Amino acid sequence: MSTSAVQGWGLRPATSEDVEAMAELRAVAMRPDLERLGRYDEHRVRQRLRDSYTPEHTSVVQADGVLAGCVALRPFEDGWWLEHFYLAPQLRGRGIGTAVLAGLLARTDAEGVPVRLDVLQGSAARGLYERHGFTVEREDPVDVFMVRRPGTGASVRRRWHPRAGGSGQGAQPGYPSAP
């Protein structure tokens, strides 16, 4: 995948064969924040994804036909837990992450359930989550734990449709399925 304009992107269900590519993507995507926090470990950054990977709750973001990101939405307490949301660094800022998140949140809003996640302290991703209605539940020196109640945030004002134009040209629905 080149760093020039992305011709098209979409989501597809993850498979067990995707785990190593996702683990590598995680290492690349998280390295700057983990190094800033003094927490980067070459092996651990990949192993954490491998240990918690569930293909049935994960979608792959494809851009120009190759794996460019991933996101998992798994059942958690009274709603969902959003995790492993990574996008290749060269694709950030093009609206893909916003569109993927808005689509997931439209689905969880329709179910009427909250979504929780954690993001590293100081991560730029926190701004994306806040724009979509996530608020801080608690923090520790490394992580910020956030929640989004149904019907809050940007996805309510601007519903995303998987076949809409813009950054998601031709994107297909591929949200992780409910159990």
3D structure, described in words:
There is one protein chain. This protein is an alpha+beta fold and 179 residues long. The protein has one domain: Gcn5-related N-acetyltransferase (GNAT) (Aminopeptidase). The protein is 30% helix and 27% strand. It is built from 5 helices and 7 strands, in the order βααβββαβαββα. It has a 7-stranded mixed sheet, sandwiched between helices. β3 and β4 form a beta hairpin. α1 crosses α2. The longest helix is centred in the N-terminal third of the chain and has 18 residues. It is globular, with a radius of gyration of 15 Å. The N terminus and C terminus are likely disordered. This is GNAT family N-acetyltransferase. It is an enzyme of class 2 (transferase). Keywords: Acyltransferase, Transferase. Pfam families: Acetyltransf_1 (PF00583). One of its GO terms (molecular function) is acyltransferase activity.
Descriptive key words:
179 residues, 5 helices, disordered N terminus, disordered C terminus
Summed up:
This protein is of the alpha+beta class and 179 residues long. The protein has five helices and seven strands, in the order E-H-H-E-E-E-H-E-H-E-E-H.
